[in-house]
Amino acid sequence: MNTFSTIEDVQARYGAHFHRAMRMPADAVSDLSDILRPRLPRRGLSPFCRTELALQYLGGGSYVGICAVFGVHAATLYRSLREVIDAVNVSPTLDFHFKLACRRRRLDYASGFQRRRASPFGNVIGALDGVAVRQEQPLSSDVQCVADYYSRKGFYAFNTQPYVTRTTSSNG
Amino acid sequence: MSPGASHDSTAFTCTRLGQTLQDSSHELTAALIEDGHCIVADEAYAASEVLALPWPGCGQGDQWKDGYNFYQSSGRIHIEQAFGMLSWRWGVFWRRLRVPFAKRPSLVRACFRLHNFCRGNDNARDCVVAPWGNDLAGGDASLAPTDVIGANQRGRRRDCERSDLRVRMTRRVEELGLMRPGVGSMF
To answer: CB within 8 A of B112, min separation 6: which ones?
Structure first.
């Protein structure tokens, strides 16, 4: 576990697959762990290690594999995941920057949209759509009506409503 | 985030942005309408002065409505690409979410935020976008302008939705003489 305290160790272990495993380049991972550091517990695993555990899980890793590589217990992985998710959601640096109220920003979005596809409309500032996020069947103790979560696509889901401006996406 | 069985339009109305945009007396909505700014969306939503929707029924034979639909939908491509990038990047979305129910919305939100963070950090190397620039439209035909639905065309409930924004944008397509590429010969 201690061998995974610095980015060089992890990079050495993963080699060329680092980007594939963490879903972002090494400098982005260290930037991210610096952003999250004040909001992660000081004791126990280093913020860097927690960030990596969470990133690997979000990147589609199985908890079995991650725990084996990092030498941690599954409970540690899930706790780190929860802590990192909470830290990401409260960090103002990582907030969605879709600011409709500012006119200058809106003009910026509009020109970005127009430039990307040579669109005849100069007034489009965003695009909106819904996505069904697949999930396990919710427990009847968690929700009032389990059937509410069964989507028309044939699986249990959340209906998430994101909008995008230019190349960045935000979640509404 | 709404339950999966809810309609897109309902789910959007439940969000803060949706509620703001519905209320035309709201400061933000008024500013958007004044500047003529809008957000493009698909047929699942209700047309309004800030949400630009495609004309129902492929424009029902009107070439300019059809042209408008084409350019409107190429604006919607961005959000579909964003979904593609998101689900490609975060493998948790490849299978059903297995974390406790109460933590699922925050997990999804965190993935969106981290995606934006990656977009800010990554450069062209990691950029997954479709090749652009080969769908530029030409076309200089002009026919009699129609904004009303012909008597012989089937009237759907959606046709009753008033959206001056959509009419204005269709007129813009018409002024520029832009049609859906490849259909010019049909008219």
So the answer is: A96, A162, A169, A170, A171, B86
Compute and round to an integer the Cα radius of gyration of chain A: 20
Cβ–Cβ < 8 Å for A18, A77: no
pLDDT classification of B130: cutoffs 50, 70, 90: very low
Bridging pattern class, strands A157-160 and B2-3: antiparallel
In a domain? residue A98: no
* φ, ψ dihedrals at A171, nearest 5°: -120, 125
- Which of A41, A68, A93 represents a domain boundary (last residue)? A93
d(CA B81, CA A46): 35
pTM confidence score: 0.80
Is residue A8 located within the same domain as residue A83?
yes
Q: What mean pLDDT comes out for the span A28-46? A: 90
> Residue A117 in contact with residue B81, Cβ under 8 Å?
no
Q: Are residues B10 and B2 in contact, defined by beta-carbon separation less than 8 angstroms?
A: yes
The residue segments making up the domain with residue A133 are 103-171
In a domain, B128, yes or no: yes
Question: What single-letter DSSP state applies at residue B139?
Answer: -
pLDDT digit string, tens, across residues A22-32: 888 888 898 99
- Distance between A39 CA and the closest CA of chain B, angstroms: 14
The angle, 0 to 180 degrees and rounded to 10, between the axes of the packed helices A26-36 and A47-58 is: 120
Chain A residues with CB-CB distance to B102 below 8 A: 142
Q: Which residues of A touch B120 (CB under 8 A)?
A: 168
Separation in Å, CA B77 to CA A4, A15, B135, B165: 41, 35, 13, 20
Q: Which chain B residues have a beta carbon less than 8 Å from that of A116?
A: 78, 132
Q: Which of A86, A103, A133 sits opposite B93 (nearest CB)?
A: A133
Please check whether residue B8 is in contact with residue A130, taking contact to mean a CB–CB distance below 8 angstroms. yes
